[in-house]
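Researcher: Can you fold this with cytidine-5'-triphosphate in place?
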Amino acid sequence: DMYKHPSTLSSFAALKQYGNIMIPAESGELASGLSGEGRMAEPENIVAFLEADLESKLPLKGKKILVTAGPTYEAIDPVRFIGNHSSGKMGFDIANEAASLGAEVFLIAGPTHLKAKNSLIKVVDVISAQEMYDACHVYFNEVDAAIAAAAVADYRPKFVADQKIKKNTVEFSIELEKTKDILSSLGAIKKNQFLIGFALETENEIENAKLKIQKKNLDLIVLNSLQDKGAGFKKETNKVTFIDKNFEIEPMELKSKESVAADILNKVILHFSKS
Ligand code: CTP
């Protein structure tokens, strides 16, 4: 009687008109002893409703984002490889942040000890630069943005020994060949994807980063500075400068890698809000 009363119904209508969302009442036994529509929704249903509503309003809902993370390992023989000190943290933080903003994420990860934190993240584990290249090209066509945070090896051994190499010579050298530049290859085929790369420079930082934007056909580059204490490999913090394709330069403060990830995703959100 109360739920269907005209004054209740007109109040509901007024509340809806003000932009409120109604969580529907449930049916069943009522406090008045009658049975019908008007029971408070079960708490778990209220929570599920709120979750679904909040999720539908996330700024990256419906977007797909490719992220590369971690180092790559280039085999020398069955037990040795050429690698680097990348922990993968920056890339994983970007993937976690993108997923918490509602994006579906394809995280192409080189060898790391990290775990993705969100069921919206599909992790594709790879080892070598070639495997990372192949995995990126599987997903790139279907994504709206790609962020290349991996520290990909630039060279790999030209020949990989089938057996462990014995130490029977005084000197030993390994012939190396170039790996494919994954980011450049994505830049070369991109359609509408918003493409973000990283740059690690130790000299002429801004000029070199600008050259990378052009060479790799990027929309934005995140320049890592090794000049700043607290920035770079195996650190919890990072100090970056954003440079966009119009060469607008935005230096950021030293901050946690999670906050840098949030700044990067803000750039992605801003891009989608304009396009
Ligand atoms: N990158 C890539 N594939 C490679 C090498 C690099 O996708 N084979 C990506 C990185 O993930 C990063 C960007 O390219 O987003 C720039 O990497 P960086 O090491 O700064 O530059 P390089 O292109 O390797 O050039 P250089 O080492 O000569 O500075």
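Model: Folded with cytidine-5'-triphosphate in place. The chain has a mean pLDDT of 94.
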